[in-house]
Request: fold
Amino acid sequence: MADILKNKKILLIIGGGIAAYKCLDLIRRLKDRGVEIKAILTRGGEQFVTPLSISSLTENKVYQELFSLTDEAEMGHIRLSRENDLILVAPATADLMAKMATGIADNLATTTLLATNKPVMVAPTMNSEMWGNPATQNNLNVLKNRDVAIIPPADGNLACGEVGTGRLAEVDDIISHIEAFFLSITNNPLNGKKIIVTAGPTHETIDPVRYIANRSSGKQGYAIAESLRMKGADVILVSGPTNLKTPNGVDRRNVISAQEMMEETKRTLPADAVICVAAVADWRVKEPKTQKIKKQNSAIPRLEFTENPDILKTVSTDKKRRPSLVIGFAAETENVTEYAKDKLARKGCDWIIANDISGDVMGGDENKVYLITNTGIESWPSMSKSRVADNIAQKIEAYFKEHQ
Ligand code: CTP
Reply:
């Protein structure tokens, strides 16, 4: 995943917004990933960041003037517009987007954008009223219809003191869009494959203030979602309650109970693969109370349980919409591979990742797993959950390569 940006050439056009300062970090982070960056700094952009800082970070000349003899002699604007794999406009102001939409070419940035035959990506930033103005929205649609990729602005505090939509997307988010773009044009078997990952614990209600849960942190499921996303898959993460950050580019759907997880998973089918990593509660309270159970006026409560739907089994045995690859997890404290082989057969899935949770696995960062399929058992050495995730993603990639 880390290599997808290596040796890519990006032309960064820096518009005149206060968020131009984020470009400095963006450039540094892209350089770390092996990107070669050239930059055009607009007159507006120059009010917020200096040519010297941009040039120091890109380790390249910064281009500014359309009619500059030295700029043109060194690299004409036509060459500048063609010799890159991607043109990224960040920050893109309302003015710059309007000029792009109407084809105005009155400076080096707009002329280059009009002259290019390369993909263009735009990260807008502006006051929320300017963003919501029909003129801007119209320009946005024009650009989208011309296949300009948009990195949507975020919500929050704006430099003008107002609150709303218009903040430049965070650097992480911009990089994730760039990675997704390059992944989408590379020949990866997971490109565009829709993969559902369930993760985290479920909470089963006892009364409005109490619930039954388990020790799952969600780390392994989130790591798998991230590794698959990095390989170009469209990942939907159906997540029980966790404190984890959503991996970039992953579509996260929050659920609380096992029943909700089942419903959301069914709603999201069909998919190419489903990976059930969640530690779903096997049982729920049969009749959760709608009012808090009071200590004073009741005897020690007795909870009656009923069985929760088995998501893995339901997906595996779905006659019409069974994904071509269904993977389950088995958390075991003893007889790990024996129980896991049995689970593979009982649940009807294709692979089981069995983890030995006799140590500090639940909530910890390390995992010792076995991959169990109908053809055999692989024992993997103990490793970090993110390494386990990368290995699983590689196996899934190999599977889809074979079953294109
Ligand atoms: N799973 C599920 N829905 C459930 C229960 C489990 O999707 N209601 C999935 C988990 O996400 C995991 C696998 O099934 O992929 C784990 O199975 P588990 O419930 O641990 O196995 P059991 O059949 O309950 O066997 P045991 O309790 O004996 O371990």
